[in-house]
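Input set for joint prediction.
Command: fold jointly, output tokens.
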Amino acid sequence: MAMPLLEIKDLKLDFRSGEATLRAVDGVSFSLNAGETVCLVGESGCGKTVTALSIARLVPSPPGQYAGGEILLEGRDVLKMSNRELREIRGRVVSYVFQEPGASLNPVLRVGSQIKEALKLHRPHQAADAEIIRLLKLVGIAAPESRLKNYPFEMSGGMQQRVMLAMALASGPKLLVADEPTTALDVTIQAQILELLNDLKQRLGMAILLITHNLGIVGEMADRVAVMYAGQIVELAPSGDLLRQPLHPYTRALISSVPKLGLGARRLTAIPGNVPRPGDFPPGCRFAPRCPIARAECARAVPDLVEVETGRWVRCPYWK
Amino acid sequence: MALLEVKHLKVHFPVKHGVLSRVREYVKAVDDVSFTIDSGETLGLVGESGCGKTSLARAIVRLTEPTTGSIWFQGEEITHLSRSELRARRRGFQIIFQDPYGSLNPRWTIEDIVGEALDIHHLAPNKSARHERVAELLAAVGLAPGCAQRYPHEFSGGQRQRIGIARALAVEPRLIVCDEPVSALDVSVQAQIINLLQDLQQARSVAYLFIAHDLAVVEHISRRVMVMYLGKIVELAEAKTLLRSPRHPYTQALLSAVPVVELASKRRRILLPGDPPSPIHPPTGCPFHPRCPIAQFPRCRTEIPLLREAGAGHWVACHLAEPDVNVTEQDRGK
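tokens >
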């Protein structure tokens, strides 16, 4: 079987905050194969963004400090790479798009020159208007010739996000990491962007790591899903299986707490309390204080992530 | 008699150009909107950014002044009331906001934030009565009375939203305008706030104008739902009806764009081309015609469709609305 494109093994990431050391990512492991879409799902503060940023070692250090684990991208450990090696993988192997395209684009440069910058770094012989236009067409921007000279503020959010995608794709990455790429966009524009991502994935054979808190997007986009809570993965499974039959109490609670279109006005099952922040984690299982099936043993030790069926992992001994 | 009646409301913001600040154009944020809300009911309002829903929310409580049109609250027209007359009426309607971090004064204690309205309307005869009433309100929204002495920064987003709700409830309003109250909250906390709003409605018979861009949330909590596009209402119906048989092509596209968790209900996605147009230069005729999969010319380009009753309680603003419009890719030919 082919080696996975990305393999994260027992990743641990700390942040120094004054005197304290907070562990934001605590033993995260999962893999991603070429051409696959994996969704990383969780609420704010669960560690999904910093996990994703770690893949290209984009977490600034200080205050970030890796405390263990490996990130194998095409078999090589990113955490041990030199700056020169990192520059080679950034863009060529892995590219990013983020949530707020307006914040990621330089407001004083025209869109064409921003894409050209990405090309100059990775494919300097093709850093010309013709290639920029080709990329804009690839991401579905109409009349691309007229868009070269636009400034970001002259474009809508959806169009800005397409420009970000064009920049990310300029280097021909094998893996696209998209951190909540549609959260700031209207639902009809979101549908366009998600459709575009799927289309690009097919055409370019690209793998996607998609971070989201929206379970609907998981249903539409993911081959497999990893659910994160308080710095750890609590469930990992093929997306259809997870959505039809979630096993971890947190996943179950999350799915029942989301109103679903067409299911009528029944009462939502709210999860009591709040998501714990790094530094404030309860002893033992981190979900126990909010868990409907928690028992005394749960506070004693953090449960292991166990493979309960092929490809289905759960971090809870009482999921049955 | 309806609790709230809005008639032909327009909110147009002037766009000032040049050194002399001459007004040459207007942002037609709300452009001829009419609807009613009955006592104790929840009317949902959905639309994407720029459709005018927030401007409408603010205009109803006169945080923004309407340009023309009338607003009737409990049978009284309120757009021409003076500031002091309006203040007295504001016991009847309140608003809660989207941003739990921006909507609470960071330098005031929770007691002062929730108690301010009690002071303005002289609803608490002395300090201890006020203190008691604030404790009651905090308990009603699921917060411990001890919270009263603390400051907003000590609370999470969900808790701050509860404080905002307690503040709105202080004057015992008949109507609360909820402007995207859960959009900024974590998924697991959204359900708590939605349930709270429903419980409060049961206990106090308060009506809501519930604004959100998340269709699933709106459909869950509302009895009837309005869809806005570029300052106009394009469809209004009971939530179930809107969901099962949407008649306006924009509503159909909106519903088909929502990503679904339930994989069994996969429906064909209608992808709208391009972006919504600018409310400064809205298209002629029907505002949706440039992106509409079934637009027919010249009528759709020249004539603004009126909101017409297409079925019992089901209103649509479309020249071509049919009960079973089945939009296929082929129908896009113009």
